[in-house]
Design goal:
Structural class of chain A: alpha+beta
Radius of gyration of chain A: 21 Å
Shape of chain A: globular
CATH topology of the largest domain in chain A: Uridine Diphospho-n-acetylenolpyruvylglucosamine Reductase, domain 3
Distance between the termini of chain A: 21 Å
Strand content of chain B: 15-25%
Radius of gyration of chain B: 23 Å
CATH class of the largest domain in chain B: Alpha Beta
Oligomer: heterodimer
Structural class of chain B: alpha+beta
CATH class of the largest domain in chain A: Alpha Beta
CATH topology of the largest domain in chain B: Vanillyl-alcohol Oxidase, Chain A, domain 3
Distance between the termini of chain B: 48 Å
Order of helices and strands of chain A: EHEEEEHEHHHEEHEEEHEEHEEHEEHEHH
Number of domains of chain A: 3
Strand order of the largest sheet of chain A: 14-11-13-12-16-17-15-18
Number of helices of chain B: 15
Number of strands of chain B: 19
Helix content of chain A: 25-40%
Amino acid sequence: MSAPEVVAPGSAVEVADAVRAAAADGRTMLARGAGTKSHWGGSASTVDVVLETRRLRGVAAHEPGDLVATVAAGTPLADLQGVLGLAGQRLALEAGSPSATVGGVLSSGEAGPLRLRHGTGRDLLIGVEFVRPDGVLARSGGRVVKNVAGYDVGKLLCGSYGTLGVITSATFRLHPLPVDRAWVSCPVATDALTDLVSRALDPRVHASAVEVDLTGRAGTLALLIEGSRTGVPVRAGTAVGLLGDGAAIVDQPRWWGAYPFLFDAIALKLAVGVGRVGAVADALTDAAGADIAVRGSAGAGVVHASLPGATPPADVERILRAVRTAIGGVERGSCVVLAAPEPVLRAVDRWGPVPGLELMRRVKAQFDPYHRMAAGRFVGGI
Amino acid sequence: MPPGPLDGLAEWLRGELGPDAVVTDEAARRTYECDGLTHYRSVPALVVLPEDAEGVRTVVRACRERGTPWVARGAGTGLSGGALPVADGVLIVTSRMRRILDVDLVNGRALLEPGVVNLAVSQAVAAAGWFYAPDPSSQVVCSIGGNVAENSGGAHCVKYGFTVHHVTGLEVCTSDGELVWLGTNQAGEAPGYDLVGAFVGSEGTLGIATKVAVRLLRQPEAVLTLLAAFPTVSSAGAATSDIIAAGLSPAALEIMDALAIQAAERAVSCEYPPGAGAVLIVELDGPAVEVAEERETVRRMCEAAGAFEVRVAANAAERTEIWKGRKSAFAAVGRISPSYIVQDGVIPRTALADVLSAIGDLAAAAGIRVANVFHAGDGNLHPLVLYDDDAPGQYEAAQRVSGDILELCVARGGSITGEHGVGVDKAAKLPRMFSADDLDTMQLVRCAFDPYGLANPGKVFPTPRLCGEPPRPRSAADALPAGVEIW
C-alpha cells in the first residue's frame, strides 16, 4: 500500500472541495488535527488521503458579552484558551493531550477534570460547521446558547472519531475564569473511594472537579475549588474537614488532568457509576495481578487506566472480561481500549458492548454509505 | 393484501393492551386534538394509552405493519404543535406511564417512565437533598418524555443547561417497533455515537422515549432571589449585562416589562414595585459565603444601572412571592387581552436593547401591543403579541408582528426557537436559519431512525427527505459560496 496523499485545506470550502474530490474518485479519507490521538480508536482500514486541519486556524469570533466564541477546528485548544483568557473567560474543556486541536478534542470526546461541573465537548458545543463524507458543507446549531431549532447534529459529531465527516468550525458557550482556586487532597483506598467522593461532592464545597490517582488499591483523591477570594478558602476549609484524616490544601497535583498512560501503554477508558469506580479499579488490579494505574474524574465516573504495553493479548482479553463483568452491563458502564499495540487490538474486543450499535450503523450508512471516512476506526467496525 | 392503516387496529390493540388503553369515541378523541398551541387542531383516528414500554412497542409495531403514522404525546403542554395528532394516524399518550422506576443517589441518577411529571422528580428526591435541574414553567404538569422531545429548558437553564445536559440514557422505541437502549443509566458516558444527544430535542420524529435516565444534582447550600425594579427595560437589560460581565453566573435572570407586570398584577397580585418600567429577577445559588457576596454585587449593579427598588427574598415563601408574577406571566396576559400569541425567539444577549427597541417599533407601527417576558441571561425572548379576535384584521397584524420578531432574531444571529420547539408552527421558518444542505443533513439522522417517516410526520422539517437514497457527491456548483452566513 502506498503512503496516503496529504492535503491541508485552508478553508471550510477547500475542505469540502477536497472531500468531494476524494469521494468522486472513491478514495478513503482520514481527518487529522495535531495527531495526538491518531493511535486512539481502531486503525482506519484504508486511508488514501489524510486531511490535515492545521491550516484551519484561529478564533473567528469571540463576543465576551455573549460568552460565545467560534473557532476553526484546527486551532490548538491551548491557543483558544489563550485568546479567551485575555477577556477573563475560558472554554470549560480540557485535553489530556497538550497540543490537541479543537476538532480533535471534539471528535475523540476528550475531556478533563472540569467535566464534573461543565460536561464534555457535547455539552459546550452550541454550533458546528462540518463537511459530510460526500463533500457537502453543513451546519447545525448556531451562535446562541439557547436554541432548539432543528436537530443537533453537533452532538453526533462529538466523540465520533471523524467517521461522520470533518469538523471545520465550532461555536462554544464559554464561562468566566474563576477569580480564585484551590486544591484539596487526601489519601484514599479503593474501598473508601465512594464515601470520600460523596463527601467531596458536598454542595457546601461545590467542587469544580473531583479527581483520583490510584496505583492498585491506594492513591490520592483531589478536588478543585473555584470561586471568589472570600469563598474559596472557606470552601477549601470545609472540604478539609469533610475529607478527614490526611486532608490538606495543596498545590495543583502534578498528575492533575494528565492521563495515567504513556504512548506505548495499553490505554483504557472506564466510564462507570460514581459509586463503582473503586470496585472497578479493584477488579482491574485483581485481574492484572499487579497494581494498575487508574486516574481521572472519580466525581463524574470516568477514569483512565494504564496496562503495561507488553501485556500479552490473551491476558488483556482476560482482564477486559473481568472488568466488564465487574461493571455489570452496558447500562451501568463501559471499558474501552483507547490504544494498544496492534497484536492486542487484533485479539480483543476493544469497545465492548455498545448500546444502540445497530442504530449507529444506520446513522453511519446514511452519512457515509461507502465507508470512506475514517473507515473501521469506530465502534462495531464503523 | 396487507391491512389498511387503521383496519381492525383498535380491536386488535384492545385485545393486546386492554379495553381502557384504546380510545375510539369521537368526543374523547377530540380532547386530544391539540397541544398547548391551540390554533392547530386535528382529531387523531385512534388514541392509545399504553401502560409500559412493551405496550408502546406493541402499538408502534402494529403501526409499522400497517404503515400508519403515529404521534407521541406527553402532557400536551407543548407550544409549537409538536404533539399535534395526524388525522389518519394513532396518538400514543404516555400519561399512564408514570412510574419512577429507580432512584440511585449513590450514582446520582433516576430512571423514569416518560409520563412522569417533571416536578415529581425533584419532589421524589428533595428530602434527601437532591433535585432535577430542568424546570420548564409548566413543570407541575409537563412530562419528562415531552421534555426529552422538546429539549426543555426553564428559568434556571442559563446556569444548569437544558434537558439534553441532564439525560444520560434512554430506552426508545423506533418506528420499526424495536426497544433500544441508548447511552448509559449510571455511568458518565457510553461508547459510540451520542444518540441520546441526537434524540433529545428531536420533537418525537426519531421515535418515542419509553424510559429516561436523568442526572440528579445536590441542592445548593444557599438560594437567594432578588427582584429589582427599573424605570425602563433597557436599564434592566444593562444591569443584566453588568452582572454577566462581572463574571457572575446567576441561576436565573428574568425580565418582565411594564405591560407584562400589569398583566401579572391583575392576575395574581404579585405586588411588584409600583411604577416599574421593568423588573429583573435574579436568582443566585451555590455555597452560602459566595451567594451572600454576590447578593451585594448584584444589588450594587442594579442600583448603578438605575434600579429604584431592590427586594431580597429572605426565605422560601418570599422567593415564591417574587416568582409568582413571572411564572404566571403567560396566562396572566389573558387578563389584559382577549387573545395573544406567545413567541419564542433567541438573540445574542448583547443585542437585547436593540432588539427590544425594534420590537417596540414593530408593535407601534402595527398598532399592536406586545408584552415582553424574557430569560435575559440567555437572550431568550418571549414576546406576547396581544390582539382581539373580534377586531377585524388584528389577528393578521399580530401574526405579522410575531413573524417579524423572529426575522429580527435571525437577522441578529439568533434562533427562531429557544425552547418551545419547531413543531408544525415553525417548520416553514426553519430555512431562515438553515440551508437546504443543513436540513438535508439533519434528515439523514431522521432516515437512520425512521426510514418510513411514520414517527410524528410533518413536524420540524418543511420538506421531508426521501430515505433510502444514499447521499451522492455533489457538483461544485451545489456547494455554499464562501462566506455565506446561514445562521
